Amino acid sequence: MLACVYPRENFEVKTVAVKLHHGKSKRKSKSVKEKLPSVTTEAECSNGERVGHELAVGGGGAVLVLSELESMAARQQREIAQQRRLLEQKEARLAVLRGAQEPAQQDRLARLRHKLDQQQSKLNRLRLLRSQTDQSRVNNATLSKFIIHFSCI
Q1: Cβ(5)–Cβ(45) under 8 Å?
Q2: Could you read off the pLDDT of 26-39 as tens digits, one per residue?
Q3: Predicted TM-score (pTM) above 0.85
C-alpha cells in the first residue's frame, strides 16, 4: 500500500534573519528549501507528488513508515472484531433473557386471566343474589300490604 505524501523537507524549519525597512533585522522561522537526500525508494503519483514508504504526519516532521501504518490498521481491525464479538455475545444473552422472560410472562398472564374470570363469575353471582333479594323484598312488601288489607276487612 503506497500513498502520495509531501516531501519531508516541506516540514523542516530553520531560523533566518529578515531585514525590516528601518534597517533592523528580526529572526523568523521559515521552511527549509534545501533538498535533503531521500533514504527510501520513491515513485511519482499521478498528481506529481512523490510517493514513498513514509508518510509525514503533522507539522513537526514526524514520519510513519508503511509497516507502522499497516500494524496500526491490523490492530484497529482486531479491536473492531473483538468489539463485534462482545456485542454479539451481549445480544445473544439479551435474547436468552427475553426468551426466559416470555414464558414467565405468559404464565403470569394466564394466572391473571384465570383470576379475572373467577372474579367476574363471583360478581355475576352477587348481582344475581342482589336482584333475587330485591325481588324478595318487593314480594314481601306486596304480601304484607295484602295481609294488612285483608286484616282490615
Answers
A1: no
A2: 555 555 444 444 44
A3: no
